[in-house]
Structures are given as C-alpha cells and as structure tokens.
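In this section we walk through a basic example: taking a raw amino acid sequence and producing a predicted 3D structure, encoded as discrete structure tokens. The instruction is simple. Fold the sequence below.
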Amino acid sequence: MRTIYFFLIGVMFSISGCNFQSKSVNQNYDVVVYGGTSAAVVAAIQAKRMGKSVILVCPDKHLGGMTSGGLGWTDSGLKETVGGISREFYQRLKNYYDKPEAWIYQKPEEYSHYRKEDDAMWVFEPHVAEQTFEKMIAEAGIPVKRDQWLDRDNGVIKDARRILSITMLNGETYKGRVFIDATYEGDLMATSGVSYTTGREANSLYNETLNGVQKERTIYHQFEFPVSPYVVPGDSLSGLVPLVHNGNPGKDGEGDHRIQAYNFRMCLTTVPENSIPFQKPHNYDPQQYELLVRYFEKGWRTIFNKFDPAPNWKTDVNNYGGFSSDYIGMNYAYPEGSYEERQEIIRQHEDYQKGWLWFLANDPRVPEEVHVEINKWGLSKDEFIDNGNWPHQIYVREARRMLSDFVMTELHLRGIEPTPGSVGMGSYNMDSHNTQRYVDEHGNVQNEGDIEINPGGPYHISYRCIVPKAKEATNLLVPVCLSSSHIAYGSIRMEPVFMVLGQSAATAASLAIDGDIAVQEVDYAKLRDILLNDKQVLVLH
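The resulting token sequence is shown next.
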C-alpha cells in the first residue's frame, strides 16, 4: 500500500518511499498524457503512432489501472463495438494464452473462456495484462514517469485558455502542446479550471429516469430477507450496527452527493502451491460484519456467485448480494479528497475487504459450509507480488465527471436523442453499484443505488464529451472523466471503452497539433477517417 506524507509547500515530499527534492526539470512534448490507466497507455501509444513526441506521466507505479489491477473479467458488452488498439490489446492476450507455457496450473481445455477460434481473450490474469501493457509501451519507445503526482494547488500553468505546463509535487515540469487527462479522478482536468460534477444528478436535470436516488429500482444486490439494522435486533433505541447510515435516504429521482461503491477486484486461487492464506488485517473489527452474520442466519448462501473464473484456476472476485466486498457509502470524499485523504479511504477499503475474507474464513458465527468453501481459496502468490499479493488499484467506479458543452445522458444511450460525432461505442448495461445502506419504513436494512438496465443496444459516444468547454481549456482532452451524467457513465465506464476513447483523444490531439488549432476545432470528418482507418468502431452497420 502506498504511503504518502505531505508537508508544507517548499519542503521535501515523500511518496511511496521515494524522496523528492525541490527541483525544476523542464521537458517539452507534443502530447503529455497524465495517468497510468489503460486509457492512458493507449492514448500514449496512439500519439506516438501519429508521429508525435509523447510522455506518459502517472502517479501509479503499475500501468493499466483496473485492467491490470484485478478486473480480469472484462465488462465488454457487445464485443463487436471494441476496435482499434483496445481490441489489439485483447488480441495480444489471446496470443499469449495460445502458448502452452501460459497454462502453468491448468490445461486450456479445462478453462471455459479460452476458445482457440476466438481472435481475442476477454478474461485474463492481472500480471499478464500488465506485462502486455508494458510490452506495448516499450515497443513504442514511450518514456514513462512513474510515482509522479500533480501539484493540485499550483501545478497547472495556463496562458488564458491554453495549458502551458504541468508540475509535479517533486518539482518536475512537463510542457506540452496538448494534454490528456486519463486518470480515474480527473485531477488534471479539475486543476486546470475545467467544470465538473460529482454524485448523482436529479432525473429532472436531463429528463432521465435512472439517475438520482433509486430506492424502488434497487432490486439487485439487495437484502433478500428482512435483516434488522439495530444493535439489539428490533430495538431502534439501541443504535445502528456498523455500515448502516443514519438519516433519510432521499426521494426517488432526486440528486445527491453519493457515488457508487468501490472495492478491490481480488485475484484468488484454489491451487495450494500458488495460494497464500488470508491474513487478519491490523485494524480488524468483526462488528463490521454483523449484518452479514444476521443475513447468514436468515439462510443466505449465494456469497460465491461472483467468483468468476480466470485462467490457471484463478478468479476475479466482484461484489455479490446485499453484503459483500463493496464498502458501501464509504467513498463519498474520495473524488475531491487530498492525496492523503484518498490514501486513507483506500486503506479503509483494504482493511474492510481483508477483514471480510478473514471473517468468512475464521469467525465461528459463519456457517460451516461457507467456512469450508472460502478456505479453499487464497491470494494468488504470483499476482501483485510487490504489494503483498493485494491489488494495487482500487476500483474507482466513478469520481469526477467533466461538464462540457455536451453531456452524455440516458437519452443518448437509449437512442432517444442523437449523439453527434461518434468517436467510439458502448453497449454495457447502465450500471451503478449501491451508494448507501439505510433503514426502511419497516425497520429493516436496505441498500440503495444499484441499477442494471440495458440501454437497448450499442450506442455512440460523442467527441464533444471528451473535450472541455472552449472557454475553459483549448488543449486538453478527457477520455475517462468525460462529460456524462451519473447513470450514462455507469455504462460508458468500462475498461475497453476507456481504451477506445483514449485512442480517439490522442488522434484528435495530433490533429489539433497539426492544424495549430483548439481541440474543439478539430475537423470531425478528418478525425473519423483516421479512426476508421485505425480500425476503431464508430458505428455498427
């Protein structure tokens, strides 16, 4: 786990054990990509392929974000919509798994999601994804600056609407003609003075139906049996057990500050020689799992439904059910939090989730059949080896979202309103995880916020939603924290789509440089032709 210490401006900073002295290093590039996500990697590669000088500057030590951080079970939607470098990445994974030596603990014919005739592999091990990203970056000859944290107070220098340079906490400065913010948090976007939002909009703002508070529609990952939230079951005067939020959850359809839950996508295994037993976290608190005890007592047993199989007898574990690995309601401060505050939130999530595993494996109140099943599993010894075999990336399902002149909404995804200037496609469910856990009118605990609604088919994503308002920044593109409502972002936010948009952003950046124009002035017809030539999928015929 990264540890971050922050001191007053002008003194030494220490991040992840690296000591940074105050210095000024000026470096000039055509394109500066900030972030270490899959979108950042693809954006940098595309800029280089377009003949531009490019540097990848990221606060991460590992490349690939969630794609290499445990999300091996790709939420791709309709795979025909994934093209360009994004599909190339998944094709490279398939080439890797076509080799016999890739199958160390399992035969390929024993794994249901490996099919020799497929052109791409959509489920994979985290370290294989990371190695693939690293190889692609090395082949392109792209310099990477790791553990570089944007100075969010004074780190962006602008000349009117144009960003001239960005400076890190260690004093290194990067000048560029165009900048791409490909972080999950949107720090460069926000520090540049670009408008954004967080939380959930009211349905009335964009004439949507699935935004804002969603008590009535939250039917998935819900408590299937009545469970009391009170310390003394049924006694409201006894207080609430941990992880139940006091207060009014709000009315259906009204906006609020809440964001969908985060978790870590764990890579577990049942192979004894590659397995590490679950360890009790330092801040273990069994009371955090009291609701789960009561849920078990009511007969719930489907806790293992999202132990999705990955190659070599591994799994990508996601949340499932009313009480799971999602740390509901504990991430509201993350998007706007300081680096130190975010790291504390990440630590709390890690403690909660490690404690959840320890609880399932050891607490005597857990049913014996659950004990037996969970103890077949352990952390994968060959994954995340420099981080205690724990994922290095928390799943930031949403943070900031840009507010541009065009906002993608539920209406665009459903095809009710037209989407101008497609630079990629999405197709996944409009998907929000739960945002809060509250007490209903019957005195039982309920989750709120989970939405899993199909938009009705593939949809276009507009170029206008990855560029800011021209009055705010003319040489910045934002392919991850793009301009979208909460519920539309719930579909767009899939890793293959982020990679697609990263490539489109870098292509537009190159055209803006060639024409010496603002990114808002890029000729869409030229952009479209290049994207299609580079095998991006902009429309399905």
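Looking at the output, two observations stand out. DSSP finds twelve helices and 23 strands in the chain. Residues 66 and 494 are 10 Å apart (CA to CA). In the next section we compare this with other chains.
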